[in-house]
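If you are new to this repository, start here. Below is one unmodified record pulled from the training split, so you can see the exact layout before writing a loader.
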Amino acid sequence: MAMDLKSFEKPEYFVNRELSWLKFDERVLSEAKDKSIPLFERLKFLSITSSNLDEFYMVRVASLKDQVHAGYDKPDIAGMNPKTQLTAISERTHELVHSQYSTLYRSVIPALEKVGVHLAGSHEELNEEQGIFVDRYFEDKVYPVLTPMAMDSSRPFPLVRNKTLNIGALIQKKEKKKGKESLDFATVQVPSVLPRIIQIPSVKDGDITVILLEEIIERNIGKLFLGNKVVCSHPYRIMRNADLSIEEEGAEDLLEEIEKQLKKRQWGEVIRLEIEDKVDERLLKVLKKEFSVKEEDIFYISGAIDLTCLMKVYGLNGFDEYKDPKYTPAPVRALTGAEDIFSVIRNKDVFLHHPYMSFDPVVNFVRQAAKDPDVLAIKQTLYRVSGNSPIIAALAQAAENGKQVSVLVELKARFDEEHNIVWAKMLEKAGCHVIYGLVGLKTHSKITLVVRREDTGIRRYVHLATGNYNDSTARLYTDCGIFTCDERIGEDATAVFNMLSGYSEPKRWNKLIVAPLWMKDRFLELIEREAENAKKGIPARITAKMNSLCDPVIMSALYYASSQGVEINLLVRGICCLKTGIPGVSENIHVRSIVGTFLEHARIFDFCNAGNDEFYMGSADWMPRNLDRRVEIVFPVEDEDIKKELRHILDLEFMDNVKAHILQPDGNYEKPDKRGKTLVNSQMEFCQEATHRAKEEKKLAKAGGSRVFTPAEPADDPEE
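And here is the target side for that same chain:
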């Protein structure tokens, strides 16, 4: 590599990864603050903010705490060691949580009240009718499920499970022998098997009033400790270290090792305590001691703990006018009316853009392969799948039909480990060859290979994608994929599965770019080529869309390319550790993040190549974990029509001035100025385009004609 990157590796040129992630969660929260967004959508964004923060603590904060315990003191690319990072994270997360609750109670809840939705803040505020209702509800449905756990001289502190909501109490009882008063600690878990949001009678007809389950339990907690006095009771929740440490080299059976480690999650170090802000100091003292939790890891909550429950409020019936209209994915035009998916793919590569286009063709591809007597083998990688996955069912059916079925199930997919173990066992029972991946590497690639016997010989059909084989998240995440039967990609696909199932390491690849051995170098070559072209005065540009950007070498290469005059436009949804606007370094780099109705998840890369654009898509972000520690696939897009589609996607997202946040040189993100400009919400535009295309196809099918619909052609009626 001819690029001299040393001068672009200064700590002041980079942002700490964890603090950048918190900026992303702030962008999610900003959607909840935006009063132009439908009211119930704002509730949803508040819930997502909480869910994001939970995972951040269980994994990222947990990892930093492990580093501190191990005495690891090496600074990151931004010059921050683990202790410094934890201090900054604590400060920023406390600010974030305060802003979150302020948004909920000062803005969102008053707005809900105006539309007839009331969230009872405390059981003490209930009127007589409501009080009678909740007390009966407690007796009939809650009391039989509860298990109060006391701690005293004969009973140790009970196990409090990760992420569960609990109510801690101090109990006063008379010790007859000694004749003195004492306070004992007790805790009761708020049962997750019962709904957390309960509808109760409203003061006004037609309104809806709900109360939280923990408020009902608190109101009746004395019934759990009859004969004793409950001095105080307060809801609390803990977060434990959930980062699995798996010794793969020494594990004879990876499946058993992961099952064993999953059980340890319940006993992991407590890294966060959420407690009611009015907590009794004596109760807090017990919790701090038993959980060994420091003051900076305690969050005093002035309201409901764990706002993920707001998704249940979002799900209330009868408030559709305060939600975004539900979008139904449109049919894939190339496959409309086609009974044989293989014949369509033989004719031309097929592009998929989810959730704007239906995910059904991906499911049908596997289903048809399972039934087709000419299909000899199906091979697929699975990272995350849905709870009742039709793809899993089709693979099992294929094996039962005598096909050679090989499935790589990634057991190390974080927080889906248990889920994937169940699928792996089911597939093995059905007769599939199940692979658990390579030692030390996660397999994150999204690829399906179907081997079919045809008149001209063996033909390989391949599906490659940026997102998981999950029919549920395909309605929520924006992803892209292609079907192809290109011979060279088919050969590469076979090599990928041979690498995963055996010890084969290809000397070269025809088309696919595969991590961890080949991908980073290839991206660096492509960046360097743009820099060399810029030096010569040849048009040079890099446009890339991804989830996260934090690989130090890639970022330094982008700085180098920018310094040579390459125009670099980046769409980075989440973490972005580079800075824009540094004189002589990143003046030509522009970064934006889109936070909208759907989760931006696709990875698309466009290199100008002196005007002969090279497009790539794939499963990898520009992060060390993707480029160095995972099996990832990035694939070229060579079909000219699909290239036009990708160019249109990137162009429209860079025009977005409704859901886009622009990274400023000071590290903050700001929404673009919309005054006097036509509003462009890229996600809604894609919905309208896909719906319009589907209608056009229906009309043409009825008329018996056909025509090419260009991506940039606007819909006839904006309301559609």
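Two things worth knowing about this chain: The mean pLDDT is 90. The chain has 18 helices and 27 strands.
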